[in-house]
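Q: What residues go here?
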């Protein structure tokens, strides 16, 4: 199991993310306002997330929608969906 820095990620979130590695979806940060982060996924989807992560606009990230985790570099952050996915 890979070790990542975790910020506000619950143990169950880590277990789910590690148990289902195929659910990770790559994307780029499109916008961030206060606690809302918008990620455009490489498959064309969009996710609006509530997270404490503060990546720069254009920065690559990975979203695990089942575990509600956002990976920014080597760090994982809790990331709850704020809007229903369009994809």
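A:
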């Amino acid at each position: 199991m890979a070790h990542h820095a975790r910020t506000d990620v619950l143990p169950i979130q880590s277990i789910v993310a590690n148990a289902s590695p195929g659910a990770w979806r790559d994307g780029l940060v499109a916008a961030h306002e206060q606690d809302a982060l918008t990620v455009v996924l490489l498959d064309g989807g969009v996710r609006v997330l509530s997270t404490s992560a503060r990546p720069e606009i254009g920065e690559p990230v990975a979203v695990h929608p089942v575990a509600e985790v956002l990976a920014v570099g080597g760090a994982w952050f809790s990331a709850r969906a704020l809007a229903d996915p369009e994809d």
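A: Context that may help when evaluating the design: The CA atoms of residues 27 and 41 lie 4 Å apart. The chain has one domain: 5-81.
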